[in-house]
Amino acid sequence: MKHKTFIALCFALLLWCVGVVAWLYSRQWGLGLADLFAAADTLAVGDLLFVHGTLPRLAMGVLAGGALSVAAVLLQQVMHNPLASDSTLAVSSGAQAALLVATIFAPSVLIWGAGAVAFVGAVSALLGVLWLSARRGLAPLVVVLSGLVMSLYLSAVTGALGLFYVEEARGLAMWGAGSLVQDSWHDVGVLAMVLVAVGIGIFLLIKPLNIMALSDEQAVALGIPVKWIRLAALTLAAVLAAYVVALVGMMGFVGLAASAAVRLGGIRLLATRLLAAFAVGGLLLAGVDGILLVILELWSVDLPAGAVSALAGAPLVLFLMNAAGVPAEHSARGARRTVRVRLSFGLKILPIILLGSLLISLLIGQMEEGWYFSGSLNLWEMRYPRILAAAACGVLSALAGVLLQRLTGNAMASPELLGIGSGTAVAVMAAVWWLDVAAGGWGFWLSGVVGALATLLAIVLFNRKNGMQPEKILLTGMALAALSTALVQIWSASGDYRIVQMQTWLSGSTYAVSGGVAVGLTALAMVSWAVCLPMQRWLGLLGLNATVAAANGVNVAWARGVLILLAAIMTAAATLTVGPLSFVGLLAPHLALMLGARLPRQQLVYAAMLGAALMVGADFVGRQLLFPYELPAGVVATVLGGAYFLWAMRRM
User: Fold this and answer.
1) Using CA atoms, how far apart are residues 513 and 501, in angstroms rounded to an integer?
2) Domain 3-91+169-324 top-level CATH class
3) Where does CATH 1.10.3470.10 sit in the chain?
4) pTM score of the predicted model
5) CB neighbours of 599 closer than 8 A, spacing ≥ 6?
6) How confident is the model at residue 96, as a pLDDT?
């Protein structure tokens, strides 16, 4: 992106925001400019709403968007990762989890204010991420990976609670989707003071932060205490994100979109990037909220700003992505750091563990009288579909995760990051919403296939001119996933009973899978496994870098396209069967590496076994833990598997 394009973007956003303010002023304010500062008790109700509702709402949009953008720039600077943003630290997920837990189990604490509860949750999540990363010196990849795992873990916990406390969870849906609605200038003043305090901290750290753009080794050689500077920058970024979440909820994709615009605009100096990111992020969020204010004024429809900002921010990132490249060295460097694990005896007994989990899930269960062991054929006929489906989905998700992580050299890559699962889920929910299709019917499957293919086509179209570069593919997937998540949040906030009924499927449940579907999915998993194994050479060479792969005779563009297509097909098949799985594709490949599966062929074999065992075990625990009630296998896999993964990361 050229400087002129960047300036034009900023000017267009500024012009729109000024136009919205002028239009609202003409419609909602009937007095002169001097009366804007009049005492509240002298104003009519309509004028009072403009001064203490509309204006602080727009101001909050500017401050919140700017704060998230500054946080994203700080994170990218110290983590050497252009995809880092405020969500990396699990701040939003921590705030949401704390608010939901307080609402359900301790509503009395809300007298201190929902913002205070959300802030405690956000800070707790941050401390958890830093604790997980401390033994590795707060290394950039470890911090990012810890934040991602923590976010997925907390999201699974809130998802499980939402299934049992539907009304309470629905009441928080609008806050979770992000709302800038204000009734005074108080919160605006609070966020402004936080920004001033953080700005002073950044000013004091600006010189070492500039040097942090170099590698850690070079920064240390220049006398920079890398660990402490990184910790300070992470803390400042987390404070900004936590206060935004506590005051207005989660604002999707604003920070990443603004920081990407600034980076691709060619601005190199950190201080200038921070100021430019604040301006772009603030104008972007205020501009999006301006659209919502116009809709509210004309049609009396109030939409959540956070979810809608993702709808605006995701296409912007896709547009900006095509203007410049994303450095490949960051992800490759991170991938090499993830394999420093000793060989484990666990690999040798993994087939026994998988077989044992299958037999236990098939033969053991509970009734009113207690536990029982049964070899009844009638019981087998009831259980084998969901057991096969769970195992097959685990295999498909794990294989897709291995392909993506090896292909991109990025330890954070997973099927969810590609956006295929999210795209499939959105297409299915859209069919339920607009076409009133029945879950499990032919329309359900058809809409899911269309969604998966449309997402894949979008990925190919956005990356066909850059040779299918892995980093740009990941960024495309993140944008599409954010776009899909925003639509799901908007629909969920509506409270429509059909969407509420989809929550179990969205949590990854196997209870409705038929025998025919389970057998077909198992066959697909076996075929996919057989197809992936001969591609081990591609995976090994591409895991180094594209230059090495090309020098060894690999058609890099063709190999990447085939691997991405396989990952998309496997993710779509698993999603259509049991719903989006939020953790297996990330967890299984990492566990395989931790157990010593270093070579591509080893990782494909053992990650598939781990994925199957994890999902079968999760399905069994979900059926028995709260008997006679059930927890979806996807939620259980994330909660239990995530707990182990967090423990293992701490010991690495």
Assistant:
1) 16
2) mainly alpha
3) 3-91+169-324, 346-651
4) 0.75
5) 536, 540
6) 79
